[in-house]
Amino acid sequence: MALSPGQVVLDRYVIEALLGEGGMGQVFRARHSRLGFPVAVKVLALSDDPAHASRFEREAMMMARVQHPNVVNIMDFGVLPDGRPCIAMEFVQGEPLDRKLRLQGALRAEQAARFLRGVLAGLSAMHGASVLHRDLKPGNVVVTPGPPEVAKLIDFGIAIPTEGRSQRITRTGDVIGTPAYMAPEQLLCYPMDARTDLYAAGLLGYLMVTGRLPFPSEDMTGVMRRLADPAPTPKAPEGLPPLPRGLAELLLKLLNPVPDGRYGSAAEALAALEAVDWNEEPDDELSAPTVEGALEVSGVMPGRGAPPVADSEPPMRYLVAARLPPSRLASRVDREFLAKTLAGSGRAYVLGNQFWFAVQNLGVSAGQARAEAQRIASALGGRYGATASISFQLVGANFGLTSGALSGATPLPAPLSEMIGKLGG
Fold this sequence. Notes:
The chain has 425 residues and is α+β, with helices and mostly antiparallel strands.
C-alpha cells in the first residue's frame, strides 16, 4: 500500500512526496505536523521474511546511537497500520556523492579532502558509539550544499554493533555489503573491525581524487585483485593539480590489504589528513608499506586454477544457498546471470519458487572451495543486495544430492536443510 500526500504517519509526520524507492522499500519527504520542519520517512516494503523487518529495526537502533553533523540523525521509529515498519530521520538537502562524481568526474584534491574529512569524522562518531557501517560507498554519502559543502553518512541497513565482541565480528559464510567497496577481510569473511570501514573510506578518497577505483572491473576479477595486489599510486587526472605527497600516502595506507597496515582508528586517519602539507611535492613512486600477518589468499584469485590438495588435507566442496525474490528466479535475465556466476565451477538447483543453491562439482582444496563460494556469494550480494539472504559453507567431497531429495521424496542432506532453514525456508 503506497503512502499518499497528506497522510499522517507515526501520529506526527505528514507525507508530502515520494523521494525514491528500491528493493527494501520507499523514502518519502514529510513534514512535522505541528513544528513544520522537514523529515525523511523510510518505509520498509511488505515482506513475509521476518529477517527484513529485524534488519530494518536494527538499522533504526544503530542510527539512534550516533548524533553527529556528518551522520544523518534518526528521529523516530514505528510501525504503520498495515504492519510495515518505518523510520523518520533528518531530511538531508543535497545530492549523493555518486551522482556528484558522475557529473563532475574527479574532484580537486582540496574538495575531495573536505569530503573525506567528513566521512572520517562520521566514522569516528559511529565507531565511538560501537557501530560498524560495513557498506560505505558513494551512494551512501550525501553532500549538502555549501558553502561549505558537508558530507553526511547515510543508510545503516547492514550496520552492526561491536560491543561485547572484542570490537571484532566474525560472520563466517555470511556475505553482506557491496563487493566493489569491501575490504579484503570482508570479502574473505574474516574478522572485521573499524579498520574495515577505513578501507572503504580509502576507496572513496581514491575515487574522488582520480575519478576511478584502484582496481576497476565490471566483474569479480577486479574486486578480488585487491586481495593480492597493492593499490597503484593515486594520481590526479590531466587538468587537475597533482596530489600532495601526504594525501597520496594517506590513501595508500587506508588501502593496505592487511588491516594492521592501516590506521588504527578513524580519528587517527583524520589527524593524518589534517596534517597533510598542501605545498609538498607529489611522489609518483609511493607504495603502501608491507606488514607482517598478510591475509591468507591462496586459491582466491579467479582464473588461477585450483591449487593441489595436499595428502593431509581432505578435499572439500562448497555449498552456496540463497533466498531470492520469486520474480528474480522467474526472470530470464536473472537465470542467465545465476548460470554465469557459477563460471563452470558448479551446478545450480532451485527449490520451490525462491531458494537457489549451488554445489561445486569436484573436491578441491579448502582454500579454493571457500574462495569460489565467497566469489559466488559476493556476486549475488552485489546484484540483489538486501532483497536476498545468502549463506555458504564447505562440505566434504562426498556430499551429494539424489533425485529423490531434489523432488522431495526423501529428506534434503543435513547441511543444505540447515542452510535453507536459516534462510527462512
